[in-house]
Design goal:
alpha/beta; 10 helices; Rossmann fold
């Protein structure tokens, strides 16, 4: 009898591959997350706050333990413990082997491309995905989530929307016209995509999170430590020179510094999505 996965604690490499062009597009993102596996846990403030809010949307629906929960884009396992407490079996899945090696889940770990999940159809009771899908092709990944969910199964997903890090983006616009911030899909595009799928119910909620930093460089260091410094479509691959950095920092302080503390805000616009098959 086939099972959803092979039940042991070894990290399993998927034999599935996504199209080469997509792999090329995502190679920078995967490289950034691989390099941040050891620093992610300490710096993941937004990820912890948003993931906690995502978990709260799930709680009313979890009266009885789910048999199988998939933590999609699990990273180093920020939510492995609470998810394992809600399930008989937790699958931690990520494209980054380094992230999985840092993940404390003692049940099943899978490394594969989220665009082609190495799981059987209709095998998972719940999919939990916190701040992963913004790095992917949204429609492809959500279709895969639908495929692996059992009928009646649910998925809770968080992502970021345009307007995230707008302070940093506007500060860079004073310097040049290059891309310095990841371009997120609009709420309208996401909602249209979901409306054209076969989900039984779709619920969305927007939230805003703001954090404060001593300098723009402190924010940049945090983004790098999280692997969130990958920017697709950036024309210049070289590091920015000192002059550009100073000009950007000056614009950030001038336009956005808090008058009382002189700290710099960094704002994120988030979307929480709850789906039922």
């Amino acid at each position: 009898m086939k099972t959803a996965f092979q039940q042991n604690t070894d990290i399993k490499m998927s034999t599935k591959t996504y199209s080469q062009s997509k792999n090329d597009d995502n190679s920078l993102v995967q490289q950034c997350f691989n390099s941040s596996a050891t620093t992610y846990q300490q710096r993941a403030v937004l990820q912890k706050d948003l993931g906690t809010d995502l978990l709260k949307t799930l709680m009313p629906a979890v009266v009885n333990n789910r048999e199988i929960i998939l933590d999609l884009g699990c990273g180093p396992g920020l939510f492995s413990q609470p998810l394992s407490e809600l399930s008989e079996h937790l699958i931690s899945l990520d494209a980054s082997l380094s992230m999985l090696q840092a993940n404390p889940n003692s049940q099943t770990k899978l490394t594969c491309d989220s665009h082609q999940l190495s799981l059987l159809d209709n095998c998972v009771d719940l999919v939990f995905s916190n701040l992963m899908i913004q790095w992917c092709d949204f429609e492809t990944v959500v279709n895969e989530v639908y495929r692996v969910l059992k009928p009646g199964g649910e998925s809770v997903i968080s992502t970021l929307l345009p307007g995230s890090l707008y302070e940093l983006q506007q500060a860079w616009q004073v310097v040049d016209d290059d891309e310095h911030i990841h371009q997120y899909q609009s709420l309208h595009t996401i909602q249209d995509c979901l409306a054209n799928m076969n989900w039984k119910t779709v619920e969305t909620q927007t939230k805003r999170y703001t954090y404060y930093y001593e300098s723009a460089r402190a924010l940049a260091r945090e983004l790098k430590s999280l692997g969130a410094n990958a920017v697709k479509g950036r024309s210049s691959k070289a590091l920015c020179g000192k002059g550009k950095w100073l000009a950007m920092e000056s614009a950030y302080v001038k336009n956005f510094a808090d008058p009382a503390s002189n700290l710099l805000p960094a704002t994120y616009r988030a979307l929480i999505i709850k789906l039922k098959k």
